[in-house]
Amino acid sequence: MEQKSKHTRLVLATAFCYFFYFAQSVARNVYNTLTPFIIDHYGTSLTESSVFTIAENIGFVVIMYIVTVVADRIDKAWLLFGLGSVYSVILLIMGNSPSFLLFVSSLFITGMIGRYMDTTCTAYISDLYGENRNRYMSLLLILFYIGSTLAPNLNTFIIEVIGQKWYVTYVVAGVLMGTGSILYLVFLLTVKKPATAVSKQSARNEQKKISALALIKNRNIASLCGNYLFNAFAMYSSSQLILYLSMTDPTVYTTSVRGFIATAGSVGLVVGSALYVWISQRMSADKYLRVEILVTFLFSFLGLLINRPLFWMLSKFLSSAIGGGSFTARTLLCCEEYPEYSSSAIAVVSLTSGIASIIATPLLNMLAEATSFRFAMYFSLLLSIGAWCMMKFGYKPHGATSFPRG
What we know:
By secondary structure, the protein is an all-alpha fold. The protein is built from 18 helices and no strands.
């Protein structure tokens, strides 16, 4: 009976962790397809619109810095409840057509809360399942991509089908997050949280910590930071694609067409993350990253070159299907390097991505206005070669316990 009770707590804790990851995926990805409406609503130029991304990424950097200091020393189970509650309130504020300043401030806060929730969910799953984390972390990412798939369709349904304003999408996301937070609180108060697979190690870590500098001195963590640095610039061609298509030819790339393209990419990510469960048993994570970077580069390049709606759907699906496990692969490499400091390792690597994103988007937007949007998209793609080099020449494959730390 006791064993059954432990299993039930583990299953429920995992389910709520999956829910929060799914909900924050919906909340984060509605912004991408809403960008043209937001720019039109506030009357900003392409360069001025960088403030939205900058605000979110500054929030991301701030929280990742905090995570490197306090991570793995806070109860992740209760932390998820706090993050979900705050996130729901901010989303509801954004869903009431706030002023420009309030909207930017809200993006800053969601950048903090959303990324902290992302890191906490990933690290909590790693803690719950220990060495068996691979499959469960892959399933976590599948749910994230399902949320990414639903987000653009939710936008299309709200705007075109029921004729509501763009910001109503945030109300829906806020209600979803808030409902989940209330149910999770009931779980914590009645059923209780389960013990984690690394609970003994975590208990010892309460009296000690590891610095970000010590983590970065590790060659593999440093290489992963470099990979994320280049990847942040390379991802511009993906994150700005919907805006790029809307400015290329809005009569061809209508809201519905852009939604289909975004959905094709999201479906590809779901397929890719599921496929990675199989791939991970046959290919090391670092080798997978090298392969997916090159394949994603090829399909994205062809998409820009051919520039047709149907080919964009195919290109986004295939590149996303091949690269769907990239986040899981990077996260697994962090957790394998420092399993007892999973949140800290993930946070340090993610911090690099956040800092690079703050710089990348405005720089590439300025390049787009100085030359052309098309040139900036091509240029960002070329920088993915740098991400490949970090994994090819920087990362040293090894067993997690055999590599010298620090």
